[in-house]
Amino acid sequence: MVFFIVFTLLMQIYTTGAKIPAVIVFGDSSVDAGNNNHIQTVLKSNFRPYGRDFFGGKATGRFSNGRVPTDFISESFGLRPYVPAYLDPAYNISDFATGVCFASAGTGYDNATSDVLSVIPLWKEVEYYKEYQKKLRHHLGDQKANSIISQALYLTSMGTNDFLENYYTLSHRRSQYTITQYQDYLVTIAESFIKKLYGLGARKLSLGGLPPMGCLPLERTTSFMIGNGDTCNGAYNKVAMAFNRKLSGLVKRLNTELSGSKIVFSNPYPIFQQIVQKPSSFGFEAAAVACCSTGLFEMGYMCDQYNPFTCSDASKYVFWDSFHPTEKTNRIISRHLFKTVLSKFL
């Protein structure tokens, strides 16, 4: 009888996420819930076929056919099955009290990265978070709001754009830094960012790593075009792994420096690489090309509802467009990270 009661209590904690009252998200298109819909940028996805498998078939601005990883993570903690975008006027502070997303597709750690497509820079995401804190305190009172702020789980996911959209595409950063120096520069920004959140009251943080970015369909298409066959860009993958090691080291150090904090490194690389290398083991039929359009290079406005080449069943594909995973892939990766890393916050 005692065992049954203890077991029941543990299951209640597990299923309701009692220790996590809210999920607060920072980052890029991997977790943007629709903030780019409300700024002047060409990088948007608030149109079909994006979102066709989301609740109600709504194109929310998420760069997928359905949900993104942070939506699944929120659900895993017993919270809402999606995290609303802060700039979406359909939601207010009462909605944001249990979860809010400040992420912006196309952004990165480096301010120069956000300038490429005129999206929200990381410093501005933090400013929106400060504004959110004020609204939360006004709505719930200082004591309740401060409790949510300190007990919430902060999820961050960015970095891919710093390399693919900025460093390897434009010459400015390459003229300033070697690739190793640029990684160190980004880690310095990541450290400052985490310390800012800590100074604002955050205590539970997950720093997201990079995926095997050389295996994105866009990069595989580029490899094919220059005569390397339908292969991943191994050099880009090595950079991603090296950067992940540096982020992991940063997390270990900050856990000792920031009193009362619990910071984890959520590394999507291993599970993502497994999916790409053996897609059939996860129920996929295609990993080299994406579902949307020809699946070779399209994303955003090049992937619209009038394109006749878009697949009918996204669950057979690892990637939705040439840069972003399908909802099914997002679910597999987020559940793996929850099971192996994020469940430590329960």
Describe the structure.
It is a single chain. The chain has 346 residues and is of the alpha/beta class. The protein has 13 helices and 5 strands. The chain has a 5-stranded parallel β-sheet with strand order 2-1-3-4-5, with helices on both faces. α5 packs across α6. It is globular, with a radius of gyration of 20 Å. The N terminus is likely disordered.
> Helix-strand pattern, N to C?
HEHHEHHHEHHHEHHEHH
The fraction of residues in strands falls at 5-15%
The separation of the N and C termini measures 24 Å
Biggest β-sheet: strands ordered side by side in the sheet: 2-1-3-4-5
Q: Please summarize the sheet with the most strands.
A: 5 strands, parallel
Please report the number of helical segments.
13
Shape: globular
What quaternary form is this?
Answer: single chain
Cα-atom Rg, whole angstroms?
A: 20 Å
> What structural category do the secondary elements indicate?
alpha/beta
Residue stretches low in confidence (pLDDT < 50, at least 5 long) are 1-18
Helix content: 40-55%
Number of strands: 5
Q: Average pLDDT, to the nearest integer?
A: 92
